[in-house]
Write a structure and sequence with these properties.
This protein is of the alpha+beta class. The chain has 4 helices and 6 strands; from the N terminus they run E-H-E-E-E-E-H-E-H-H. The chain has helices spanning 23-34, 81-88, 105-117, 129-143, and strands at residues 9-17, 38-48, 54-58, 64-65, 69-70, 95-104. The strands form 2 sheets. The protein has a 4-stranded antiparallel β-sheet, with helices on both faces.
Length: 144
């Protein structure tokens, strides 16, 4: 059987109002990492001044981030410089964001089984939670 050191990885840009990420969102991220659903590979904090000046802080192992505490990052730098610069442009003036690379631990076994069988994933698409909920709410309303 094919054994992978890593499962699929997703790169997120999560935006916040103001100059720093919300500790509650970071706490929820920490809970998911502690629950072993995800492995936190890389974390970057981006803020943009009202004038459009961008500040990028690449978090390193042992850094204390409010809401995350003493974090352990598995693969510093997996969010490449080009990705970071491109994503930072999407942050609105006066706002901030985190760029987070998450390994999908729960999907590693499936990826191994697919590879071992000789199969290949031809397409994968994530449907954002707000869209899923809106579609299902609309369908439920029509059924009433």
């Amino acid at each position: 059987m094919a054994e992978f050191r890593y499962g699929p990885v997703e790169l997120y840009l999560v935006g916040f109002e103001g100059d720093r990420p919300d500790p509650g969102v970071l706490g929820a991220l920490a809970d998911l990492v502690e629950g072993r659903l995800f492995r936190l590979l890389d974390l970057v904090i981006v803020s943009k001044s009202d004038d459009g000046d961008i500040d990028i802080v690449e978090i390193e192992d042992g850094d204390i981030v409010e809401g995350l505490g003493d974090i352990e990052l598995a693969e510093l730098g997996i969010a490449g410089e080009e990705d970071i610069i491109e994503l930072a442009e999407l942050v609105p003036p006066g706002g901030s964001a985190i760029i987070v690379a998450l390994e999908l631990l729960f999907a590693r076994t499936l990826a191994e089984k697919i590879a071992a069988s000789g199969a290949v994933v031809l397409s994968a698409e994530r449907i954002p939670a707000p869209i899923v909920n809106a579609v299902l709410d609309a369908a439920q309303s029509e059924g009433e």
